[in-house]
Each structure stands twice: as structure tokens, then as C-alpha cells.
Design brief:
CATH class of the largest domain: Alpha Beta
Oligomer: single chain
Number of strands: 18
Largest sheet: 6 strands, mixed
Number of domains: 4
Number of helices: 19
Shape: elongated
Structural class: alpha+beta
CATH superfamily of the largest domain: GAF domain
Radius of gyration: 36 Å
CATH architecture of the largest domain: 2-Layer Sandwich
Strand content: 15-25%
Distance between the termini: 61 Å
Helix content: 40-55%
Length: 552
């Protein structure tokens, strides 16, 4: 729909100045909006016209042009979004070519046969006056809408109240979807239950169609939808905050047609909702800043900072003598620059987590960083701990898959500790789980408790000792592989995975049994260790794990 406000071609044809004029083509376009009037005195006029204009001309140029040139003019006028064209056909031509008329009908582009005796000025002036009066009336109506919306905002009303204002002015069903808070606000009026179902399906289809694409459109959309076998106009207005879409306002022309006034109402309402969301984001940013500072102090190894945090624990409703477990969500961005989109994503995930915590009846403290979200879960009994944490992480992973789409993330879950002062240990565990989760086959979600021997090997204090152990055991194998393009390290790794079964190892490596046997003998000779000796076998298996841990 054209954004201009004005009067329709149908309204123009009812005016006294047009009493002797006829609409001869493009009847289906009679609802086109005329926002202004222009005269075509120059064939290049189309370079300077705007959509919504009614173009006035004579058939003088048509007399000289062939039919294809005339059709080209009509086609270009329609493409430019003009409301229509008025032509003084007589006395230059007897009639417009039937081919031109048929093209205009096909394009729903109105052609008006202007009465030759009426000056253009007698047509332009009344139409301009009518447009001015219509726009003045529209401005008055919009001012009332603005007052209603401001009243809602200033009285501390909710977005639901904004939805009611939209519905009262559009007199058509309205649905508002707020991505920020996972809310859907509906004002459907007295539509029948069956119609209500169709509207909700149409609303859902909009997001289903865009699923996987990530809706980034910041522009208003108008489409014709089929609802209950009827062609219904649907308007979708995005709610844009900081250059990101935070939701949409939907309306369907079920009761009355949707036009320029309705579009302006949706624009004003969208801006009002965007301001309310911006206010909520600002409040959350301030709250998160305090939460993040508190958490940094709590996790600090500095005694004074930690004591300071423990003294302020009450402010965040955290008790000193409860059990805690840390869940860290690490977002892996392709860029080091923090964009509005990244901040939006973190804010939305934060909101999702808050909703999830409520649904699962958990107690949690949430603090965001620029590339991660820290969730501190509180527990009282160990029996419920494992189940509730697992449920939380399973739902969280599903949510992140939908929210992040192609973006990468990792979730690390630390061990439970009793006492708020011990939370830093759970945080360190969670980070270790994120860093080394792939070593136990966990690419997305890793529990530190499930990391087996890696729980011991990944301790920072062991780094130097691990390096020495690595060098003394399988470094010669690594160097041999590098020089000879061999696969002895891979063979040794898969040897342990196949529990020392050489036949299975040969199948897994797709090599002949004798080749596999030869490789095993080379491994033993180069390392000086015997795989039949349980001590040597244990050392080599641990060495393989250390190699992965050190990312050698």
C-alpha cells in the first residue's frame, strides 16, 4: 500500500469538476490513493513524479506515438506507483487504443477520459483542496490517537493498553508479538471462534515461513491473505529498537478496509511500544551492570572483593548457607566487535532464561557479559539437584537452538558447592567444561562432573607436569608421524577405543590386519613401551588424553 494519504480515484470521479469525465480503464484500481496532481508537459516527466500522483495530460503526444510507445507510458506509470492518469483524448484522437485499455485493466491502472472543455486548473485546484481537507482531518484523528497513546504511557499503562488503543482506532483484529518478553497480545474483538482460529494460524504462518531466515525486515509489509476463502488485507508493522526488530504488530481488514490512516496508527503505536521496550532494556542494562559487578566480586580470588560481595548478597536475595551450581553460556561470535544485534541476542536469551526459570520453579541469579551469560542456580536438596539442573539445561539448549540459529554457543555446568563463598569453584568448573567438553564428545553442553579423568588433568597447577609427561611418552610418535606422514598417533588412539582388539582396530582403520600389527609394533619400539604391560598401557592412554587436552 502506498504510504501517502489523500483521496481515492473513486472519490475524485465523484467530484463536480469530474462530472463530464469517464473512467475508461483500470477500474480495479479505483481505490488507489491520490496524494497530489501533476501535469505531463514533458515526455520525461516520469523522471520527476512520485507514487500516489494523478497525472494529467492530453492525447497530443499519443497522436504521434505508436501503440507500443503508449503502452510503455502506461506500464512505466504503473511501475512508478502513480494513482492513475487523466487524458484529454478529444480532439486529438477518437479513442484510446484497445490494447492500451487492456494493458491498463491488467495492471489495475486507472485511465480517465478528461472532458476536453475543462481546464486542467479547474481539475487540479478542487482535488488539491479535497486532499488538503482530508489530510487535515486525518491529522486531527492522528493527534487524538497520539494523545491516547501518550495517556497510556504517562499513566504507567502496559503494552496491552496500547493494543487496545490500536484496536479501537482500526476497528479490526490486532495481534502484537513481543520478542523481548515472549508475549503475544491479542485484541480480536467479536470475531467468531472459527475466524479467530484462522487469524491465529495466519499469524503463526508468518513466522513459520520466515523460520530459519531470521526476520530482519525493518519495513512495513502489506499482503493479501486468504482467510476463510476470502482475500483479506493484512498489515504487519515491525517494532524496531536500536536498528533491530523486537516484535511485530499485525492487523487484518476483517471489519473495515485498512488504509493510510490505519498505517499511520500502526506506525505511531510501533514507536510507542519501541520506546517502552527501550525503557525496559535500559532498566535491565542498569540491573545487569550491578549484577555483573557483584558476580565479578563474588568470583574474585581477592579476599576483600569477595567479602564485599558476600555482604551485599541479601540485595540479590542470595543466602550464604545454600547450595549453588553455576551454568555458563558462552556465545561464540565471528567478530570481536560488540554490535547492537549481539546485545539484542543476549537480552532476548536473558529474557528466555527468566521465563524458563519461572516455568521450572527454580531460583536463579542471572548476569550477562558481552559474550556470555552466567546463571547461578540455587538448590536445597541434592536429590532434586541433578534432575532440575538437567531439565533446565535441556530446555535451555532447545531455546538456544531456536534463538541463535547458525550461531555457535557452548554451555558449561560446574559442580554443586555448598555456601555462596564457594561459587567461584563451580564457575571454574563450568569454564573448564566449556573448554574441554569436546574431549568427551560434548560439543554443546558439557557437565564438569561427567568429564572423568579430564577433571584431574585440566587443573592449571598440572600444566607443566602434563607437558613433561607428554614429551616423555608420545612426543616421539608425533614427530615420527610428522616426518613420515604416518598415522601412529591415530592408530594408538583408536587402539584404546577398540579396547586393544586388533581385528576391530583394523576394521575401524580400514587397513589390513598385518598393517595394523606392524603399526602397533612400531609404536612400542618408538615409545619404548609395551602395550601388553598394564602400566605402560595406562601411561600411553593417559598421554593420548593429555595430547588432546594440550591441543597438540
Amino acid at each position: 500500500m502506498r504510504r501517502q494519504n489523500g483521496i481515492t480515484i473513486e472519490d475524485v470521479m465523484k467530484m463536480e469538476c469530474m462530472s463530464k469525465c469517464k473512467l475508461i480503464a483500470g477500474l480495479q484500481g479505483s481505490r488507489n490513493t491520490v496524494s497530489r496532481v501533476n501535469i505531463m508537459a514533458d515526455p520525461d516527466i516520469l523522471n520527476w513524479v512520485d507514487s500516489g500522483e494523478l497525472l494529467l495530460t492530453t492525447a497530443y503526444s499519443f497522436k504521434k506515438d505508436d501503440v507500443e510507445t503508449q503502452k510503455k507510458l502506461i506500464r512505466e506509470c504503473a511501475q512508478k506507483g502513480l494513482a492513475g492518469i487523466g487524458i484529454k483524448i478529444y480532439p486529438y484522437l477518437e479513442s484510446i487504443s484497445q490494447e492500451v485499455v487492456e494493458l491498463a485493466d491488467m495492471l489495475n491502472f486507472p485511465i480517465i477520459d478528461l472532458y476536453y472543455g475543462t481546464p486542467f486548473s479547474d481539475i487540479m485546484t478542487p482535488i488539491f483542496m479535497e486532499i488538503f481537507n482530508k489530510q487535515a482531518s486525518l491529522l486531527q484523528r492522528l493527534e487524538k490517537v497520539h494523545e491516547q497513546l501518550m495517556k497510556v504511557v504517562l499513566s504507567g499503562g502496559k503494552i496491552q493498553d496500547v493494543g487496545m488503543v490500536i484496536y479501537e482506532n482500526l476497528r479490526n483484529p490486532v495481534i502484537i508479538r513481543l520478542e523481548f518478553t515472549n508475549e503475544i497480545i491479542m485484541e480480536l474483538g467479536d470475531v467468531e471462534e472459527e475466524t479467530r482460529v484462522f487469524l491465529l494460524e495466519n499469524f503463526s504462518d508468518y513466522y513459520e515461513y520466515n523460520k530459519g531466515k531470521k526476520i530482519k525486515k525493518r519495513k512495513f509489509e502489506e499482503t493479501i491473505e486468504t482467510i476463510e476463502g476470502k482475500h483479506i488485507t493484512r498489515m504487519v508493522m515491525p517494532i524496531v529498537v536500536k536498528n533491530n526488530v523486537y516484535g511485530h504488530i499485525f492487523s487484518w481488514a476483517m471489519e473495515t478496509p485498512l488504509g493510510g490512516f490505519d498505517l499511520s496508527v500502526l506506525e505511531t503505536a510501533s514507536t510507542t511500544i519501541a520506546l517502552e521496550i527501550l525503557k525496559q532494556i535500559s532498566v535491565r542494562d542498569v540491573e545487569n551492570r550491578y549484577r555483573a559487578e557483584f558476580l565479578e566480586d563474588l568470583l574474585s580470588l581477592d579476599k576483600n572483593r569477595k567479602e564485599k560481595a558476600l555482604e551485599r548478597a541479601d540485595v540479590f536475595k542470595l543466602k550464604l548457607d545454600e547450595g549453588y551450581i553455576m551454568v555458563v553460556i558462552q556465545l561464540e561470535s565471528q567478530t570481536t566487535i560488540v554490535t547492537d544485534e549481539i546485545l539484542k541476542t543476549i537480552a532476548l536469551i536473558n529474557s528466555d532464561i527468566e521465563t524458563l526459570v519461572k516455568e521450572l520453579n527454580l531460583k536463579a541469579f542471572i548476569a550477562n557479559k558481552t559474550d556470555s551469560i552466567n546463571v547461578l542456580l540455587t538448590f536445597s536438596g541434592k536429590n532434586k539437584l541433578q534432575t532440575s539442573t538437567q531439565n533446565f539445561c535441556e530446555f535451555l539448549e532447545k531455546n538456544l537452538e531456536q534463538r541463535l540459529k547458525e550461531k555457535h554457543y557452548k554451555i558449561g555446568i560446574g559442580r554443586p558447592y555448598f555456601g555462596l563463598g564457594e561459587v567461584y569453584k563451580s564457575y571454574i568448573d563450568a569454564i573448564k567444561a566449556i573448554e574441554n567438553g569436546e574431549l568427551i564428545g560434548e560439543k554443546k553442553t558439557a557437565y564438569f562432573e561427567k568429564m572423568g579423568i579430564y577433571k584431574i588433568l585440566c587443573q592449571d597447577s598440572l600444566q607443566e607436569e602434563l607437558e613433561r609427561f607428554y614429551e616423555a611418552t608420545i612426543l616421539p610418535l608425533v614427530e615420527y608421524d610428522s616426518k613420515r606422514s604416518a598415522e601412529l598417533v591415530k592408530t594408538l588412539d583408536m587402539y584404546f577405543q577398540s579396547n586393544g582388539n586388533l581385528k576391530k582396530l583394523s576394521e575401524d582403520l580400514f587397513t589390513h590386519y598385518n598393517t595394523t600389527l606392524y603399526r602397533i609394533q612400531r609404536i612400542q619400539k618408538i615409545t619404548g613401551m609395551n602395550l601388553e604391560n598394564h602400566k605402560d598401557r595406562l601411561n600411553l592412554e593417559i598421554a593420548i588424553k593429555i595430547k588432546k587436552l594440550l591441543k597438540k
